[in-house]
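Quick board copy: two proteins, each given as sequence then tokens.
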Amino acid sequence: MNALSTLVEAVVERPETEGRTLALLAMKDGATVVEWYGSSPTTFFGGGERVTETTTLISWSMAKSITHALLGIAMVDGLLDVNDPAPFAALQVKGQPPIRWIDLLEMRSGLTFVEDYEDASVSHCLEMLFSGEEHRGVADMGLYAASLGREFQPGEHWSYASGTTNILCRMLGDILAGGDVASVGAEKRKNAIEQFAKERLFGPIGASSPIMKFDATGTFVGSSFVYATARDFATFGELYRRGGTLADGTQILPSGWHDHARHWVAHDPEGSGPHGFDYGRHWWLWPDFEGSLVAQGFHGQYIFVLPEAGITMVHLGITDTEAAVLLVKGLGELVRELR
């Protein structure tokens, strides 16, 4: 067994108390060098099914980085400028500085939002995503997040908030559909952003599996809900590894958009890395690896991209928050071996 195989085994065969890996895929200079699949856990309702290269798995917050790509493509089309004030009346307060697209991308909008998933008596995130009929969340997630009020001035305080991403997606949906839900309807808004994503992002990069989820108004729930295969999540990561170009050199993201994503904004000492994680613009940054980009989702979902070293790595699975640092350490050893 070579060193790489040993490191892979250390991640995927770790004790169940440290979590479960469902898929692990690593690429070096565009070639797949690791591809491993596990099984879903057995529960009272069933499970224990083998995960394969065709199994679609949930992104959780990795979807935020996909949202970053969609906004970049919209910029290429001249549909928005991230330095402009956000075109959403519910966000803006007369006599106060406007909240801009970039403030939202950097998670520095100043809006109130409690992100906690597990411990808080109040969680705006859980209410937004899972309250209501059949636990489908609030009807208009962007409006919900925009209406909670301001705690800080835009740009002065960093606070990770899933509601922020759904505000961005609501505005993008309005632009693409030519109006809000009251004027054009939910179905037109859903179809507009879904078609845009397929024709301008997923199709060009060769990702056929992604399934996007929407709220009742047709807004893409870009905070949390894309289902795709490990291969297609890696294909998305490869787009950023190549600096926003397709394999044939065609540029589909704005020039330098991957550097835009990894512009340092804040440090989160509670992030899942051994030394915490940094935050850029809808991508995380791994302090241990200079120049890295990390799409990160709840329970141990990661797309790790290190452009200058030619590395893209995807981990999908079920890992409790308490064990996340151990997982990230293991993934870090894999990156060092690949580098």
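And the next:
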Amino acid sequence: MFLCLLVVVGKNWRESLILEKALISRFVNIIKEELEVMKKTLFVFMFLALTSPSGLAGDTTDVAASTTADPFTLNAAHAAGAAGTVYRLARDGQYLVNATIIDSSASGLHVVGAAGTGNLPIIQPAPAADGSLPNTYFKTTGTTVLKDLAFNGNGPGKIGRVGNMFEGNGKDQRVVVDGCVVEGFSGRGWGGGEMLASTSSGMRFHITNSIFRGLNSGNIFNGGVLRGAAGGGMSYDTLIVQNSSYFGSASYLWVGPNPSGYALFDHNTVANIMANPFFTPGMANTTITNNIFYNTQIYGQNLDENKGGWFGEDSARVAGGSYHGTISFDTLSSAWNDSGYTEANRNITVSNNVYYDDATVTAFRTRSLTVTVSNAAGDGDSTYTDQRLDVPWMNAEVTAMFAANSSLTAANNQNVDPGFIHTYRLNRVRDEMIAHSTDFQEDRATSGAWDWLSDADGGGNNAAAYDNMTLPVLEDFSYTNATVATASSTGGPVGDPRWGAAAVDDSKGILPEAITLDQNYPNPFNPSTEITYSLNSDSHVTLTVYNMVGQKVNVLENNIQTAGSHTVQWNGTDLSGRPVSSGVYLYTLESGNFTMTKKMILMR
């Protein structure tokens, strides 16, 4: 790039100096803008190089799924593999891991799901000989690529949860997570980190096209995505979270107390989060754009929690009335001078986001309640009234910082209900999170159930639902609001693109108007028949086959289904898989208060 600087001498030297300064300032800004574009472009090239087949160094080893005879195939393959090997896991396979896989090679670790049809391979914990589960699945020091994989942190039989999926221990380490589904981890908290943690500096995280769901534990704020394993914060060189979803979880999307090299949060859907999505008092050089934030910080806040630093606010600022908001950060202190950032070049852009809290969450966050705790003498209880506080998009102080600082930009952010089509699961999990928050707030201790998302997957609190990971995930964040569908920086939809936006602003044209149960086809049948039913909203469904004397023959459905049309097949067998005799059978659909029964004929 060649720049020409023209200095025009006016009537006096002061005018010339003013013009020269203006021109210099403009050229400096142009250079900064072009460098930023170059940096983003370089990130894209590097990401593509890492995730494309040609970008994966080393030989590829196909790892067989776990079997009863050979349960820990992934652990064994890594122990026997050479440095730089790419471990490819089979679609629809389950891979039990009973010990952390540690890779200290310079060439790093690459674990990918095979291409093709079928569900993602699932990495699942198994207890060690002493009954314990791994704290984490992977610890590495080199470049790490985790692509097209599913990670289940739930241990068998509700014995516990794995802490997190990954811990990076290498300086300037690059980590790529693409096309993954992560659920059922407890998090390891301030000293252990969350799903993607690090003990080192200069981390380069690229998280794309992934889903994080049901990350939580008995601790109110354990279970998040990005948090350091040493002292809470990580030193980032690069942090990109794009085209991904984070929902039904307890803790922060990003804990970054210190200024980062560059952070981009673009086209993500964040919904039903107990805590604030960002714990980032030292946020700098960050772009947050084209996202949906729905029911974040369900837990709410009060004055003492803010003063205690629960949400990253300085106690002096809280005393002045600056409570935490969804987008919140502090003024840069002298402790961060060596980061290279000052208030004048902080470079934060928050634009084209949609945020919304439903009426149930808002009412919960603004109520007052009576709290019962042990008295000072320890010989009884004492009570006090806790006035809860709502959570703004930005508090007054942060809003003023954006207005006064040209390096901070907040534009085109809208408080709009996206109009999610499928709300049964969304609201059910929200209500369980409110119950969990209430359990803690009433006596400042947690005693109730907290496996809300795993339990919801199976329609109840049962070990089978806890063990099994359902793929594809049951949630669907498609929405109907036309404003949200054109709210992005390019005039298109915001949020994770996988869900999409409906073409109309009226879900009546998309969903059935009523619950229906069709006649099976073919009828009579041999050896199998199909039964189709439709739901006008997400709901728990049972579809049961009975004989003519009312005895249960088989259960074809017993789970939560999304609104729309569904078809199941009955192959003429009973609950034990044995063929039943010819005759007339009844099939009954139940959903909430709805019940309908029809007849079908099996002819052998």
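Board note added afterward: Residues 13-51 form the longest helix (39 residues).
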